[in-house]
Amino acid sequence: MEPSIIEGSWVISFRLGFRRRAPDRFDVVRLEDPGEAGHWILKRIVGLPGEEVVLRAGELFVDGRAVVDAYAHYVQASSDKFEWWPRNDEYVVLGDNRLFSTDSRKFGPVKRSAIHGRVKIS
Length: 122
Fold this sequence. Notes:
Elements: E1 11-14, E2 28-32, E3 40-47, E4 53-56, E5 59-62, E6 65-67, E7 81-84, E8 90-94, H1 104-107, E9 110-111, E10 115-121
Antiparallel strand pairs: 1-10, 2-3, 2-10, 3-8, 4-5, 4-7, 5-6, 8-9
């Protein structure tokens, strides 16, 4: 998540953070890395269940509408295009430092059960 979360920063993850409400767009969440069991990663939710989410040339679109993504820090090739259609229990997650992030562009949408908490940055 660097530069939003600088290496060495302290973060607090609330396991019960979504008990009263579902995860929402732009929440930072803690989840187990789908590519490496036992390794935890922090990502930002950009797509919710049932939406069409497109990342094209660095711009985020949800259900055909451009979404201001003030958290993204990167330069992306104009030819890059990613599309997701998360199901009822899935979320699209991206790292803020998109150029160097391993996220839904690599492993696809993540299931709700893989999200282990909402992160508070201190």
